[in-house]
Amino acid sequence: TPASPPRHRNRGMRTRLGCLSHKSDSYNDFTAILPDKPNRALKRLSTEEATRWADSFDVLLSHKYGLAAFRAFLKTEFSEENLEFWLACEDFKKTRSAAKLASKAQRIFEEFIDVQAPREVNIDFQTRELTRRNVQEPSLSCFDQAQGKVHSLMEKDSYPRFLRSKIYTDLLSQTQRRLS
């Protein structure tokens, strides 16, 4: 019947909205995506290490658990595509095969850069167009400008909020509690 499809669509929308309302910014969100078993991983994480994540954004990105905590935080803000793009670019720069370079570049472009990409990152038109041209003749540096813009956006916008987030403050108190 004609009435069935809208009702089905509304149910799907309600389910999605229900999922949105259950998103939280907590220590448990972080432990759920740790690269190792959470308890073992957290025993290895010192308060000193976790405190150093506040020294600089790059210190945070270079630490396995810092990266996991930041990813969990970005998920609560629905902006993890920025980090995923940055990581894809880091992986892309390690490509040694010329044959793989073109296909990897195209995949990254289609997933993150192209207009209406499934995980489109927020970059300006000029950067998007420059990247589009670069991907036509890919080199290891073809995403450098776009990656730099996304890094800067995360550093200025998401990173300060992460340092004030419940995920980070809970994590610090967990490591300190272990010491006492």
TrEMBL record:
Pfam families: RGS. It is found in: Cell membrane; Cell projection, Dendrite; Nucleus; Perikaryon. The keyword Cell membrane applies. One of its GO terms (cellular component) is dendrite. It comes from the Eukaryota. Keywords: Cell membrane, Cell projection, Membrane, Nucleus, Signal transduction inhibitor. The keyword Ribosomal protein does not apply. Coiled coil: none annotated. It is a peripheral membrane protein. Residues 56-172 form the RGS domain. SMART domains: RGS (SM00315). GO terms for biological process: negative regulation of signal transduction. CDD domains: RGS_RGS8 (cd08711). PANTHER family: REGULATOR OF G PROTEIN SIGNALING, REGULATOR OF G-PROTEIN SIGNALING 8. This is Regulator of G-protein signaling 8.
